[in-house]
Amino acid sequence: MTAPPPDGLPYRPCVGIVLLNRDGLAFIGRRMRAAGPEHVDDTHAWQLPQGGIDPGEDPYRAALRELYEETSVRSVSPLAEAPDWLSYDLPPAVGRQAWRGRYRGQTQRWFALRFTGAESEIDVLRPGGGHKAEFDAWRWERLDRVPELVIPFKRPVYETVVAAFASVAIPA
Length: 172
Description:
This protein is α+β, with helices and mostly antiparallel strands. It has one domain: Nucleoside Triphosphate Pyrophosphohydrolase. It contains three helices and eight strands, in the order E-E-E-E-H-E-E-H-E-E-H. The strands form two sheets. Strands 1, 4, 5, 6 and 7 form a five-stranded mixed beta sheet that branches. A three-stranded antiparallel beta sheet has the order 3-2-8, with no helix packed on it. The longest helix is centred in the middle third of the chain and has 13 residues, at 59-71.
């Protein structure tokens, strides 16, 4: 058994997006294995869109960019922002592989957005800006069910996100 990453490693600054349709259901994508070891195990491959914040980038702008780069979605209106940054640590074996071992995990700013477009706008296989696909499938799901579908080490963050956005995860 190998030692966990040193506690001195920083968290990777990221954003997370709860994209809600008119029925109050959340977009979830099924991560491809090639998207990275930090996202997929054999059972829990679903997650909400999320990604890194570029240096100097505003978190809300990063959320809009990441959403487009993963789903092709641009038709959104803001609903809410989680009050705090939420963090999780990667399991040691994953931490050595993900992001070349530079981070202990992620600290995330979460946003809830209402999807205002047509479902034909969503394209996870050929996402916006020519970015490499990270999802191989997607669906709408009740927000309260999402934590049970994600990889277990992310579950506490997802449970907090569900609680933070429960009041906006309702039909429009």
